Structure formats: C-alpha cells, structure tokens
Amino acid sequence: MADILQDFPIQVPAHRVFDGVSQPALLDQWWTLRSSGQPSVGSAYELDFGPNYLWHAVVTVALPGAAFELRLTDADRDWNNTFVGFDFSGSETSTLVRFHHRGWPEPNAHFRTSCHCWALYLRILRRHLETGEVVPYDRRLDV
C-alpha cells in the first residue's frame, strides 16, 4: 500500500477549512466540478469530475473544525477503497492542515500523477479559503 501525505498551513480558522473540504458548494470551488453530500458519518457523497468521472464516496470521519475523511467507493480502480482525509489544528487565524490519501494499492504511475495533482488542488484550496480566489474547473491543473 502507498499513501499521499501533505502538511500545509492555511491562514483561516479550522472551522472554515472543515467547511472548505466537506461542503459540496465549497468542494466545487477547488476540487470537483459538481458534488453533493452531507458532512456526517455514513453519508454518501457524489463527486462529479466530468464525463465518465462520476465517483462516489462515503463519509468515515466528520468532526467539525477537527477532521473530515471520505472512503471512495466507486471511482477509478486505483482510488476505490482509498481514504481522502484532512486533520486540522490551529488558532483563530491559522490552521495546520494534515492531508492524506491513504490505501493506494501500489505506487504506480497513477499514484505518482495523483501526488502532483493533489499538491495543485490543495494549493487552490488554500488560495480559495485565504483570498476567495476561484479557478475555473478546466484550468485547475494549470495553476
């Protein structure tokens, strides 16, 4: 098994980071084209990345202001049964985000590409929460 791990600060309180990674309308600002779901354990999420990329996940952790995690249940073969999650700690003005994408079956080429893509998406998340910047979906991997 292989894992993608990233730690980075965001200059907003943890409750805003929680919302940014768990609320569908905010996920759509930095990661998905369209998404739906409720941030509560056991809730199903639909993650739409465009034609032929309608993925599904279930919430495994939902602790407002502290942690959020999804288990991918219907996605790309390498992503199925992996866990995408965030843990937060910080103050009223800054949050340390500890990101993980755990459970990859092997560190193959798709894993290596996803390591790079996650770094780009997480940068967009930070910029969106800190400044309100919105990057159009079709340009996110070009930022």
Q: Can you give me a brief rundown of this structure?
A:
The chain is α+β, with helices and mostly antiparallel strands. It has three helices and seven strands.
Essential attributes:
single chain; alpha+beta; seven-stranded antiparallel sheet
Q: What does it look like?
A:
With 143 residues, this protein is α+β, with helices and mostly antiparallel strands. The chain is built from 3 helices and 7 strands, in the order βααββββββα. A 7-stranded antiparallel sheet has the order 1-7-6-5-4-3-2. A hairpin with a 5-residue loop joins strand 3 (44-48) and strand 4 (54-63).
Mean pLDDT: 97
Strand order of the largest sheet: 1-7-6-5-4-3-2
Percent of residues in helical segments? 25-40%
Tell me the radius of gyration: 14 Å
Query: What are the segments in which pLDDT stays under 50 over at least 5 consecutive residues?
Result: none
Order of helices and strands: EHHEEEEEEH
- Structure summary, number of beta strands: 7
